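Tutorial handout. Part one gives the primary structure; part two gives the three-dimensional structure as tokens.
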Amino acid sequence: IKSPMLAKRIDSLKPELQQEIWDSDEYGLEEKLNGARMSIVKTNEGLFMYSRHNSVTDLLPIEYSGKILYPETFDLDQIKENFILDCEITSDYDNVSTSIGKYGVTTETMLQAVTAILNCDDKKARLIQKQENLYFTFNVFDCTFYEGQWITQEPLNKRKALANELWNKLVKAGFKAKFVKWTNQNKKAFYKDIIMSGGEGAVAKHCN
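Part two.
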């Protein structure tokens, strides 16, 4: 699994490209989240979670599967397809940083708190989530693998449509997930709405 590409500020691009991003439906805007990047991997053997970064020890993707506490109502047997979804893990719990302080973990932001929990050993990570009723939210934004085939060369619009379909199935099965907001229409209004609601901003991506 390759590491994610780093984004650039739009004002660092040439003016003509900036205008094309705003005006052309060949580009879409995706809400920017401040979460922990993760891949959801569904196989015949189960559901697994991997970082987009590799371990410095064995150079393999870092696995977080044992650290995640799923809702008791989640029924993986309802999901028949095998796939890999790109997502960011966040917490909807406003006081997540305060709550984990009692476990000897000091953080100031939601991202720091989520990352700190994921860096605990499996048992402690699940214990914190259980005792604090703190289920992570998986914010899905892309599908990179589906039913035995890598699909990263497919157009982004097509991958997002598939990711949305799989996200719906996960939610119906009781998985705690959201689909990241995305549009290639009325992008300035979309961006303004994100900022006005306290969001971080948006990421521009080519649709094809």
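Part three, for discussion. The longest helix spans residues 156-172. The CA atoms of residues 117 and 125 lie 5 Å apart.
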